[in-house]
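Hey, quick one: can you model this chain's 3D structure?
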Amino acid sequence: MRDSTVHIGLLLPEVLGTYGDTGNAQVLGRRLRWRGFDAEVVPVALGEPVPSTLDLYLLGGGEDGAQALAAAHLRRHRRALAHGVVFGVCAGLQVLGTRFRGLDGVDHDGLGLLDVTTEPGARRAVAELVATPSGLLDGEPLTGFENHLGVSRRGAGSEPLGRVVRGTGNGDGTEGAVTGRVVGTYLHGPALARNPALADLLLTWAVGEPLLPLKLPEVDRLRGERLTVPRRRR
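Sure thing. Here's the predicted structure for all 234 residues.
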């Protein structure tokens, strides 16, 4: 059993915490403790240096202004994230990409950890999002709630996290992006509460060893309820 504490970096929660994505840190910490690991969530505020010693880095969602602030700060600390396990949701996905454009038409450089560019779409996506996982995860669908205007285009350097079954995702039939151990998604919920297999994949990368399975029938029940939610009428 690993002796050291697993350190989970919660990056800029005051600007990238609009949609409850800070809950992803709590989920990871709890799933580690259930398995006998020590876990510590390390908030990193805007203006503070990003430690390079953390095991996993989380970015959440935020509005355009907050997203631009986050990108400007994190670009100065890109090296700390470049070789780590990183998970970004919504604005976090876009910041991890190479470039994103705000509603004001201004382009902003991202961190370039995902081969993704994002521009505003014609219509906001607000609905339950369901995707079939591709590549990294087998079996269970990915679920979450999306609330974004962005249309994200992947380059050759990133694979999709999933293929859309219901909802919009990236806007081209795919959902999210993955490059190495960097994962971005449009799934809110929080995503890692609603998708335990995805949470455990990130944790496996972070701890560097297989994890014992967790039997949580209540999670399975809630996931089943989410998957039967009727389509939103437009």
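One thing worth noting: The longest helix spans residues 23-34.
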